[in-house]
Design a protein that fits this description.
Blueprint: H1 12-15, E1 16-29, E2 33-40, E3 44-50, E4 69-75, E5 81-90, H2 99-115, H3 123-138, H4 142-157, E6 178-181, E7 186-188, H5 190-193, E8 200-202, H6 204-215, H7 218-221, H8 228-246, H9 252-264
Parallel strand pairs: 3-5
Antiparallel strand pairs: 1-2, 1-4, 2-3, 4-5, 6-7, 6-8
Length: 273
Amino acid sequence: MPQRWYNPNMSYRERVYRTEAVVLHRQDLGEADRLLTVYSLDYGKLRLIAKGARRPRSRKAGHLEPFTRVRLLLARGRELDIITQAEAIEAYPGVRDNLIHLGQTAYVVEMLDRFTVEREVNRTLYHLLIHTLERLVDCGEPAAAIRYYELRLLDQIGYRPELFRCLGCSAEVRPQDQFFSPAEGGVLCPACGSRQKDARRISLAALKVMRHFQRNTFAVATSVKIRAQVYAEIEQVMEEYLSYHLERKLNTPAFLRRVRRMMHEGLKPDSVV
């Protein structure tokens, strides 16, 4: 992995490098530039400048939209590296169909962004990201894609929840409803969970699905039909677990709840401002 350093005496060949990446988010910089955060195959998370990307005739602009998978040619800069060329590989147009799809994609990206640091390479995480973006478009069950992504990402960053043995007494989990504690890092038996302040009840059905997702490939994990109520319960468990480890709440779950609530009231997601 190249180090983040700059020497004005470097040759052009020494200054430039290539990578494949997914654009996580962007913001305007100055009058014509953009500051982008991407997650790359070869260098992990990067903060980059796209000079002139906001100009009407910019060739880079259309290739650097959020959630786009792109090939980049980069040049080392004094503070931030510079995007000199960009070519879109996949724009995942289905993720922009409505605000629900957009919010789900933003959640996937936000979680990756929050749990990673700059220039820490993890190719498995990169492939997990692009596979999840594909699944959100193609698999027909976004809830499955997101719940699977959460558990796999937690495996990669060292926060894998314990789902098979009680973290209080080490007893193997019995086939009954249990407790889940973010602070302890996973499941607690009824006896131990009732004494843990932050523990919440988790149904046997939800625990079985989480264990099934944790142990299997996506194809195997999603080969059985799972009720919407079970996915909803796991969503609440995971939101609390992620918030505990981040020491703050993610932004997108609240946005998605708002959109769903307005849909329930008869408004189309596209009409939500």
